[in-house]
Specification:
With 440 residues, the chain is an alpha/beta fold. It contains 16 helices and 10 strands. An 8-stranded parallel β-barrel has the order 1-2-3-4-5-6-9-10, surrounded by 8 helices. α5 (142-166) crosses α6. The longest helix has 25 residues, at 142-166.
Length: 440
């Protein structure tokens, strides 16, 4: 039994802690940190890419699904993490990036997208056909969403059968359906909450999907659908985080307990406190997707290293990572401009410090990447005083002092991501002691 289906089996046996984080990122340093951290355990790691990041045309990272797979495997080989313990996931796979096209073109591209993900060996496939396409009505019927989802599932199944011809032992992908209700970053009910998916919406989505699968002769499809994306009331904006409130999600949780063999997948779990993440898993939100918070933590570490660089090296040698990141964002504002409102000064702060973390789109830019490597090189050539490390990276200082983390700049930056990942370990691992993790 594969690791994702094993979670379902554990939960059937009354183990409410059974869950898994989904690390949704294409950033090399963030992936490396997640895999390094996972060496502490004997568990699989789920690493995902979205259709925006990775697709047959390269996405904003320039990578196809096969390219992304090879990147993750190369990083895993470098840190000594076993490839067979990596679960590759594709997130929001569908016509997401072709919404301006009519159905025939958008769904044709989506079919090729999911085919490439499956044939590249991705084993968690989130089919998302919830977006309106050119020519669609203002309110998209759930029947249309499910019909398109079933069509993509059929493409995935055909791709999987081709893999099996070459390798009869090829594991079958597990599927997630649905999208947040409301859409990602959905409507706020009040200043301190967001709308939770209505139980009726979940029941209707699952009913119509079953109906559409049956129309295509895919009666066994639901044996391979392990989860549905819901909005459990968690979200984040520029400077606020809407914490999980299990009381407000109670009706949704009760409704999902009626659905045997399907768990909830929660998106936008970024920045949730550890106890909230743990409550989510206990309530059946067994797949916790996190993305922007990973690169937000990495950016924090790189900014801290940049401050230390300024104190330890002559100005002429500075890598100037913060300046390079800002310059890249100003040169190409499309990935942040419509998301950050306010005065120029307010927008400048958001470009650096917004929880939305739009700066993640710029890490891979050539000029920005060079400054990161120069920053690491600069600080590798000097001894970082422990007092300075305590000032700018206090959590990493504790690990360096304990001898569990080398004071190498690349590892220090990566450990900022590790520190975040430990919150997800607390939520998904039985008897996990988060305090002990500070020294590992």
């Amino acid at each position: 039994m594969d690791a994702l289906r094993a979670i379902l089996e554990k939960r059937k046996q009354g183990m409410p802690f059974a869950g898994i984080p989904s690390f949704c990122t294409a950033n090399e340093l963030a992936i490396e940190a997640c895999l390094r951290q996972a060496l502490r355990f004997d568990d699989p790691v789920l690493v995902e890419a979205t259709a925006n990041q990775v697709n047959q045309f390269g996405g904003y990272t320039g990578m196809t699904p096969a390219n992304y797979r090879d990147l993750v495997y190369r990083i895993a080989d470098g840190v000594g993490f076993p490839r067979e313990k990596i679960i590759l996931g594709g997130d929001h796979l569908g016509p997401l990036t072709w919404q301006s096209e009519p159905e025939e073109i958008a769904m044709g591209n989506a079919a090729e997208l999911v085919r490439q993900f499956v044939e590249a060996g991705f084993k968690k496939i989130h089919l998302d056909t919830s977006m309106r396409l050119s020519g669609d009505p203002a309110s998209l019927p759930v029947e249309t969403v499910a019909r398109r989802g079933a069509a993509l599932y059929a493409v995935c199944e055909a791709a999987y059968q081709r893999l099996r011809r070459d390798n009869p032992q090829e594991a079958r992908p597990a599927f997630i359906i649905g999208s947040e209700v409301p859409i990602p970053g959905g409507a706020q009910e009040a200043e301190d909450s967001v709308s939770v998916t209505e139980p009726g919406a979940v029941r209707e989505t699952l009913r119509v999907y079953r109906e559409q699968f049956a129309k295509r002769g895919l009666d066994g499809a639901f044996d391979n659908i392990i989860g549905i994306v819901v909005q459990p009331g968690v979200e984040f904006g520029d400077g606020e985080v809407f914490r999980y409130d299990r009381a407000k999600a109670a009706a949704l949780v009760r409704a999902m307990r009626e659905q045997k063999g399907i768990v909830m997948e929660g998106h936008s779990t970024d920045y949730q406190p550890p106890q909230a993440l743990k409550e989510m898993v206990e309530d059946g939100i067994a797949i916790l997707k996190v993305g922007p918070a990973l690169t937000f933590a990495l950016r924090e570490g790189l900014f801290a290293l940049s401050e230390m660089e300024r104190l330890l090296l002559p100005e002429a040698q500075w890598a100037r990572f913060p300046e390079a990141l800002e310059a890249a964002m100003l040169r190409e504002p499309d990935n942040w401009k419509k998301y950050y409102s306010g005065t120029e000064a307010e927008q400048a702060l958001k470009r650096k410090f917004s929880f939305s973390d739009r700066c993640r789109y710029y890490f891979a830019k050539e000029g920005v990447g060079r400054t990161v490597e120069k920053l690491f090189c600069n600080l590798s050539g000097v001894a970082i005083p422990m007092g300075l490390l305590h000032q700018y990276l206090p959590n990493q200082y504790a690990k360096v002092r304990a001898g569990t983390l080398p004071p190498e700049p690349r590892r220090l930056a990566g450990d900022c991501v590790v520190h975040l990942v430990e919150d997800y370990n607390y939520a998904t691992k039985l008897n996990y002691m988060i305090a002990d993790a500070l020294l590992h």
